[in-house]
Specification:
Blueprint lengths: L2 H13 L2 H8 L3 H15 L4 E4 L2 E4 L1 H27 L6 E6 L1 H4 L2 H12 L4 E6 L2 H9 L5 E4 L9 E15 L11 E2 L7 E5 L4 H12 L5 E6 L2 H9 L5 E4 L12 E7 L3 E9 L6 H15 L2
Parallel strand pairs: 3-4, 3-5, 7-11, 8-9
Antiparallel strand pairs: 1-2, 5-12, 6-10, 6-11, 6-12
Length: 296
C-alpha cells in the first residue's frame, strides 16, 4: 500500500467521479483507475460501486475511508513537524511550568521572546513537580520549568536558572506585620496556610519549620499561590511564598516579611529529556532562557 494510492482513493471518494479526481490531481484517469484497482486487490474488497456516472463507496469503502483520511492527516502533520524541527524561527515550543511561575515570569518571558520571533508558537502546560517530570519523559512537552531543580535524575537533565528566597506572609493587621524580618520560630503558635501534599513548596516550608524547631499547625490548604495569598490576607493564617509569587498586587494582599533564620529558598531550573536532541525552535528558546536568567 502506497501513499499515492491512499491519496487517489480519498480524492475519488470525495468527488465520487474518476474524471474529476484526475483533473484535480492532474494525473491521467487511467493512472488513478489502476492505483484504485491495485488497492482493492491488496485489500481483497471492492471500495467503489458504479452508480450511473458516479462512483459510490461500498460499506468496506466507507470503513476504509475513515482510516485512510486519518493516515493522510497524520502523515501531513509528521511532515510539518519535521520541517518545524529544523526551523528555529517557526514551529511550536511545548513547555511545562508550575503555577507559581505562571503568574508573572512565564508570561513575561514568552511575550518578550514572541517580539523577537513572532512566528514561534507556544503550547503551555501547567503541572506539579512529578507531573512535569512525567509529561517530559513521555514526550508530551519538550522543556519544563521546575522547582526544586532535580540534581540527579536518570531521564532528565538541565540547568539551574535561579535560587529564590521565600518570604513570610501575614495578615496586614498581624502584630508582626511591620517587622523588618522574622525568625520562623516566632510563628510556632500560628496556624499555617499550606500547599497540598503533592506540591514541592509544601515540603520546603515544612523543612524550614522543622529547622526552626517546630512542626507547623496546618489550618488550611490550597493548590495555587493566589489561593494561599488570599487566605492569608483574609486573616486565616500565615504562610511562606516565593518572592516571584508576590510581585503581582491585588486588593487582597498580605504583609510580606523577609525570613532571618533559617534561610528558606527554592531552586528553579529548566529541564529536558536526557540525551535527546531538542527541536531547533525549542533549543533556541532554551538558550534564550539561559541568557535571560544570567542577566537577572
Amino acid at each position: 500500500m502506497e501513499f499515492r494510492q491512499l491519496q487517489y482513493f480519498v480524492t475519488v471518494a470525495r468527488l465520487e467521479h474518476m474524471t474529476h479526481a484526475a483533473e484535480e490531481l492532474r494525473v491521467a484517469q487511467s493512472a488513478i483507475s489502476r492505483q484504485i484497482h491495485q488497492l482493492e486487490e491488496e485489500l481483497g474488497v471492492e471500495l467503489f460501486a458504479q452508480k450511473g456516472r458516479n462512483l459510490k463507496l461500498t460499506s468496506a469503502g466507507r470503513l476504509f475511508l475513515k482510516r485512510a483520511e486519518s493516515l493522510l492527516v497524520d502523515l501531513d502533520r509528521s511532515v510539518l513537524e519535521v520541517r518545524e524541527f529544523i526551523d528555529p524561527e517557526a514551529g511550536e515550543i511545548r513547555i511545562g511550568f508550575p503555577h507559581s511561575l505562571g503568574i508573572h515570569l512565564l508570561p513575561s518571558v514568552v511575550a518578550q521572546y514572541r517580539k523577537l520571533h513572532p512566528n514561534v508558537k507556544f503550547r503551555l502546560k501547567q503541572g506539579t513537580f512529578h507531573i512535569l517530570i512525567h509529561d517530559l519523559c513521555q514526550g508530551e512537552i519538550d522543556l519544563a520549568f521546575i522547582s526544586p531543580f532535580p540534581e540527579h535524575r536518570e531521564q532528565v537533565e538541565g540547568e539551574l536558572l535561579l535560587t529564590e528566597q521565600l518570604r513570610v506572609i501575614l495578615p496586614s493587621n498581624h502584630p508582626l506585620a511591620g517587622s523588618p524580618e522574622i525568625h520562623l520560630k516566632q510563628l510556632e503558635e500560628e496556624s499555617f496556610v499550606m500547599f497540598s501534599e503533592h506540591y514541592s513548596l509544601r515540603a520546603i516550608v515544612l523543612e524550614a519549620c522543622l529547622q526552626a524547631g517546630f512542626t507547623p499547625k496546618i489550618g488550611f490548604e490550597g493548590e495555587e499561590t493566589d489561593t494561599i495569598r488570599g487566605l492569608v490576607a483574609a486573616g486565616l493564617g500565615v504562610s511562606l511564598l516565593p518572592e516571584m509569587a508576590l510581585i503581582e498586587t491585588s486588593p487582597m494582599m498580605p504583609a510580606s516579611i523577609p525570613v532571618s533564620e533559617p534561610r528558606v529558598v527554592r531552586t528553579v531550573g529548566l529541564i529536558r529529556r536526557k540525551g535527546e536532541r531538542l527541536p531547533l525552535v525549542a533549543e533556541a528558546f532554551r538558550k534564550y532562557l539561559i541568557e535571560y536568567f544570567q542577566q537577572l
